Amino acid sequence: MNYRRFGKTEWQVSEIGMGGSWFYGRPEYGLLPPEHGIAIIERAFELGINYFDTAPLYGKGRSEKIVGMALKDETRPYYLATKVGYFPEPFDYTRDTVWRGFEDSLERLNRDSVDLIQIHEAEQAGWDGIFGKGMCLQALHEMKEQGLVKEIGLTGSDLDLMTDALKTGEFVSVITFLKYDMLVQTAKEKLIPTAIENDVAIILASPLHAGLLGSKRDQWLEKRFTGLRPKVERIEALLADQNQPISQLGLRYLLADANVSLLLSGVSSIEELEDSAAASASGPLPQSLVETIERA
């Protein structure tokens, strides 16, 4: 496993991080026993992964609870990130509600503090919901002042909103989702230059386009990303002579961007986790291949 600088924090994080949205099972596919998720987290440590991301939204707290079980009494160094803005339903970014949600997260995680607290889906909050008086950021500042969080981050899919938010200097990290991978590079053109300018850690979530470049290819081409079929097929043809699964190639494509701090791999099994870690071991794709992919 290779490690990268996490923006202005100077943390050294594994370039493959573990996302917490799938490892516990999903209601639509069947929930898995806590032991399943605990085993995945243990294997992550063995593979050198030291960054774990979760949220109240994932399984309505189930992800946080299993993460808390897995990390109880853990002595190996790691970074833990969670999010606020999803308690109660629907998204609520007022100060008092954010505080209640965070306190519930700490209880589920079975701990007194976290390394990184993030605003979940910033577009649901909007500018006023983030920066307004009595709103989200006020609560996060209070948490940091009280030593309950070390740093504050931002997540979402509205590139314009997040770009403007990063310019305020309030955030040490930003997560983009479905905006930068082998199929789409919109964040590379807009959000990422601002993140670099402000020394904000860049986290790429769902780096295989929600599994479209992995285990959910056929399902998503039929139901969710039908319009991307031509692009997927062009990329597959282009990489057909590469002696590696497209899932690993997709991660290696993103690892070729030295400005990226880490990729969040939302794995559902140890096998998927090992597949993601293998991409780090293989190293970034050659720049010539990256450029060819982006022209596809």
Walk me through the structure.
This protein is an alpha/beta fold and 296 residues long. It has a single domain (3-211, 260-270), classed as TIM Barrel (Alpha-Beta Barrel). It has 13 helices and twelve strands. Strands 3-6-7-8-9-10-11-12 form an eight-stranded parallel β-barrel, surrounded by seven helices. A hairpin with a 3-residue loop joins strand 4 and strand 5. Helix 2 (62-71) crosses helix 3. The mean pLDDT is 94.
Instruction: Tell the overall outline.
Output: globular
Number of domains: 1
Indicate the CATH topology. TIM Barrel
Number of strands: 12
- Helical residues, percent: 40-55%
Précis, in short:
By secondary structure, the protein is α/β, with parallel strands linked by helices.
Write the layout of secondary structure elements.
Elements: E1 3-5, E2 12-14, E3 16-19, E4 25-26, E5 30-31, H1 34-46, E6 51-53, H2 62-71, E7 79-84, H3 95-109, E8 114-119, H4 122-131, H5 136-145, E9 149-156, H6 159-166, E10 173-177, H7 186-189, H8 191-197, E11 201-205, H9 217-223, H10 229-238, H11 246-255, E12 262-265, H12 270-282, H13 287-295
Parallel strand pairs: 3-6, 3-12, 6-7, 7-8, 8-9, 9-10, 10-11, 11-12
Antiparallel strand pairs: 1-2, 4-5
